[in-house]
Amino acid sequence: MTLQEMAAHQNIVIQCHDIPDADTIASGYALWAALRQLGAQPRLVYSGRAQVTKPNLAWMLKLLGIPLEYVEQLDAPDLLVTVDCQHGAGNLRCFEAARVAVIDHHRPEIEEGPDVLIRPALGSCATLVWDLLRSAGFNFAAAPTVCTALYYGLYTDTNGFAEMFHPLDRDLADSMPFDKALIKRLKSCALTVEELDIVADTLADPQQISAIGLLKARPCDPNILGFTSDIAQQVEQFDAVVVYCPLPGGLKLSIRSAVREIMANELAAFLARDIGSGGGNIEKAGGFLSADAMEKIYPGTPPQRVLEDRLALYARSYDHVYANNHQLDFASMPRYQKLPLPLGFAKSTDLFPAGTPITVRTLEGDVDTHTAADIYLMIGVEGEVYPIKAERFAATYKLLPTPYTMTTDYAPTITNKITGDKIDLLPFAHSCVPAGEKIIRAMPLTRQAKVFTNWDTEKYFFGRVGDYIAASEGTTDDLYIINREIFDKTYRLL
Ligand SMILES: [Mn+2]
User: 30 C-alpha vs ligand 1 centroid, how far in Å?
Assistant: First the structure.
């Protein structure tokens, strides 16, 4: 349902989840403002057993003038829109309505439909609402309080942007004009004395699974988890820490890593695989494990136990393979040839004048480089973008006459770091294919592995059972992991 279609209803109610947080309030408020710009008169409400008492939220409502009403009952409206939550789920009171729409970023718990918009990859519902408003032409400049609210919603839902993983979240964080003084004030009253007590209790009783600290907090605001994991991460005995708390619908996690051998975002993705969502950066990450999804896969097992078992599995099941020191006999592995699949590339100086520092943003993350006549930008099979020297390009690829096309959840963008101007990369991209024959030696992994290369001292490749470990033919230290599905599509056995 578009915003115009929503605004066409007579009696509209926007509902935040019970025990509202900054993200649900920001999302509801931005939607409320957008529908008013379109001439509607919506109400913004929440329900549940208790009213807002948290100081930062009380200040947020007051300083931004957000007309959030607490209701115990509701006469069925023509349209009910639940934000940051899903109608019928356990974390909001269920109200009747002639028509129901859902805007959320948690794991889907309801059936898909034209009135259901759920994007679990996003770090906050504020990001989703921002994107909706942006495509509907909402005038953000005329609504500074909406901008500040959305910024704060994302800020709090991603633990101060530390546990953010989608490029759209980064776009909001970078581009949104916000009231700095007001955000500063909200940051300085994020904890109550009772919450300080939760932090103390959580830190007082750590479990340890292998070298990973596991700390359980009482149900609390997810921000407390980030704060607590930042402290626990500094304990010498822990290579990584996972702090979690039970919330309606599942477990919320905050993850920190202190060693090269564990990337926080990869650990988050491992823990959440098939039962939730998780990500962030290599040092800080977050996630959510859905109780329903856990019950489906591990019937009868308490959620806490599922988490402990997954952590134990993580801690014991990886082989560590260092490029400069390993026992793999690549020469005896089968030979494969890389298929000549079309890739994309763009000349960097077609985007901005030579010498401009730029940031390339893709689903895979940000890459900083600069434009120059001899720098091209390659677009890989997964939509990742990386710079390549024109000379090397000419030696490795040949041009195709066909136009380059790619479909992805987020089209790569290029930002001029001096002016802040941002453009889409794809309209500048051409097609090419690898020119020569690339032969590798490879075999499927029988155990999960992490591969540490010589050229990147921070990150590693991780592979699941069935993914391939490979090296260019004739080398033993240029090794990497290739995802099984990608391998099947891009290599052929010789
Ligand atoms: Mn949220």
Answer: 14
| Range 81-91 average pLDDT | 93
**Dihedral class, residue 161 (left if φ above 0, else alpha if ψ from -120 to 50, else beta):** left
Distance 181 CA to ligand 1 centre (A): 23
In the chain the first and final C-alpha atoms are separated, in Å, by: 51
- Nearest Cα residue to 170 out of 369, 427, 429, 415: 415
Name the domain count of the chain: 4
Q: How does residue 359 score in pLDDT terms, banded at 50, 70 and 90?
A: very high
The larger pLDDT score, comparing residue 473 to residue 203, is at 203
The predicted pLDDT at position 30 comes to: 98
Q: How far is the CA of 450 from the centre of ligand 1 (A)?
A: 32
How far apart are the CA of 154 and the centre of ligand 1, in A?
8
In this structure, the answer to whether residues 67 and 117 fall within a common structural domain is yes
| Residue where a domain stops, chosen among 187, 213, 240 | 187
Q: End of a domain among 418, 434, 450?
A: 434
**CATH code assigned at 167:** 3.90.1640.10
Query: 27 lies in which domain range?
Result: 3-187
**Alpha-helix residue ranges (DSSP H) falling in 38-179:** 55-64, 125-135, 144-157, 167-175
Count, residues in the chain = 494
- What pTM did the predictor assign? 0.81
Residue pointed to by tokens 């390659």: 378
pLDDT in tens, 3-26: 999 999 999 999 999 989 999 999
Rounded to the nearest angstrom, the distance between the alpha carbon of 106 and the centre of ligand 1 is 7
- Is 93 in the same domain as 233? no
pLDDT of residue 320: 83
Highest mean pLDDT among 120-134, 246-260, 363-377, 451-465: 120-134
Tell me, yes or no, whether 168 and 216 share the same domain. Answer: no
- Cα of 188 vs centre of ligand 1, distance in Å, is 21
d(CA 310, ligand 1 centre) in Å:
25
